[in-house]
Each structure stands twice: as C-alpha cells, then as structure tokens.
UniProtKB/TrEMBL annotation:
<keyword id="KW-0106">Calcium</keyword>
<keyword id="KW-0479">Metal-binding</keyword>
<feature type="domain" description="EF-hand">
    <location>
        <begin position="114"/>
        <end position="149"/>
    </location>
</feature>
<protein>
    <submittedName>
        <fullName>EF-hand calcium-binding domain-containing protein 1-like</fullName>
    </submittedName>
</protein>
<keyword id="KW-0677">Repeat</keyword>
<dbReference type="InterPro" id="IPR002048">
    <property type="entry name" value="EF_hand_dom"/>
</dbReference>
<dbReference type="GO" id="GO:0005509">
    <property type="term" value="F:calcium ion binding"/>
</dbReference>
<dbReference type="InterPro" id="IPR018247">
    <property type="entry name" value="EF_Hand_1_Ca_BS"/>
</dbReference>
<dbReference type="InterPro" id="IPR011992">
    <property type="entry name" value="EF-hand-dom_pair"/>
</dbReference>
<feature type="domain" description="EF-hand">
    <location>
        <begin position="159"/>
        <end position="194"/>
    </location>
</feature>
<dbReference type="InterPro" id="IPR028846">
    <property type="entry name" value="Recoverin"/>
</dbReference>
<dbReference type="Pfam" id="PF13499">
    <property type="entry name" value="EF-hand_7"/>
</dbReference>
Length: 214
C-alpha cells in the first residue's frame, strides 16, 4: 500500500479535539495504516480463490492484539469485549471496523484523557447493557470473570455476591441499589482506586507515558 499522508483538514480537526499534538497524530496515522494493512494481509481468500473484501479500518481481532501487546491492557476477555463495544464505530455505532478519526479520539481518552474522560470511559465499559446504570447483576458478571476459583470453594458465586455488596456499598452514593454515572463519579473522586473496580479497561500508566505509538 502506498504511503498516505494524513489530510490537513483531518489533522487540524483532531488537533483541536484530542489531547495529541500534530507529530503524535501523524505517528498515530502511520500506526493505523500499518495495522489496517497487516489485518488485510491476514484475511484468507475464499475457497474459489476470490480476494476477500478489503477491511477499511481496525477490526476486532487487530484491536484486541493492539490493546494487549502495545497498550498493556491485559484484562479479562469480557472487559476487553466491552472496551471494543464502546468504541465509536459506524454512523449508528457498534458496527464495522474502527476508522482513523474515532481511533485517534478513543486513544486520546485512554492515553491522555482527563479524569472525567477516564471516568466516563470506565463507566461505559462496566455498564454492560448501556442503560446508564451498573447493576448488581452486571457487577456480578464482571467480578465473577475477574476472580479465580479457589480450590475447595463449594459455592464461589456466594463469595462473588458478597464482594458485589461490598463494592456496591462504596459506589452507590445515593443508596438506590444501583450505580449511576453521578454515583460512580463521586465515589471515584473520593477514592481513585475504585476507577477500575471491575477490571482493567485503561492502559497502564507506564504504557500511556511511554507513547507506545511512536
């Protein structure tokens, strides 16, 4: 694939709307083109030898690999699935591969986001059905995935339910039995360690500071 330069209009727009400088955006674009080209080369031809439709963007498999290897996001598959699901894709959201501009905007929040951007990102990942609340059932699913079953545990689910009640007590500021974004925002502001209470969904600080896209 011939080298493509980032369009000036796109560069200016992203410079205004992300936390990246222009050199970083150019580097991100080079990274993006390499990822797309690599993903395209991995798609097998059909049984009758026809070339597959070209991927136009970053597909889920490539996204997963980059989050693991480049951004040190070693997390439960269920959480990584949710990180992918919350990324901006398609006019209606949730379909297709990730194009460059949403890729840059998403990485801006994950790598250089403000405290508020990071809170909204994590909350969206944990809100499994997207209804604006993290419920007991969602907490149970997230925590059950992240905890290892100990030998001799007769009913590990009981221990997870106990943990859910402990975390709910910390996060449910208005005491209505579920966690809204306002609850989450207030609780995490008071206790920052609660930000990733249900699984890692942000790159490690070391990776974010290292500018791994360079």
């Amino acid at each position: 694939m011939p080298h493509r330069k980032l369009k000036e209009k796109t560069l200016e727009s992203l410079y205004k709307n992300t936390h990246f400088n222009k050199n970083e955006l150019e580097a991100l674009y080079c990274m993006y083109r390499k990822l797309v080209t690599s993903a395209q080369s991995m798609v097998p031809t059909s049984a009758i030898g026809q070339s597959p439709a070209k991927l136009d963007g970053i597909d889920q498999c490539t996204f997963r690999d980059v989050m693991h290897s480049t951004f040190d996001l070693v997390t439960e598959e269920a959480v990584l699935e949710r990180v992918w699901a919350t990324w901006e894709r398609g006019a209606g959201g949730g379909e297709g591969a990730i194009k460059f501009e949403p890729w840059a905007r998403g990485l801006s929040k994950m790598l250089k986001g403000t405290d508020e951007e990071r809170r909204i990102h994590c909350f969206s990942v944990y809100d499994l059905n997207g209804d604006g609340y993290i419920t007991r059932d969602e907490m149970f699913l997230l925590l059950k995935n992240s905890l290892l079953k100990q030998p001799g545990d007769e009913d590990p689910d009981e221990g997870v339910r106990d943990l859910v009640e402990l975390v709910l007590k910390k996060l449910d500021v208005d005491k209505d039995g579920k966690v809204s974004l306002d609850d989450y925002r207030e609780a995490v502001t008071q206790e920052p360690l609660l930000l990733e209470a249900f699984g890692q969904c942000l790159p490690s600080k070391r990776q974010a500071m290292a500018k791994p896209y360079h």
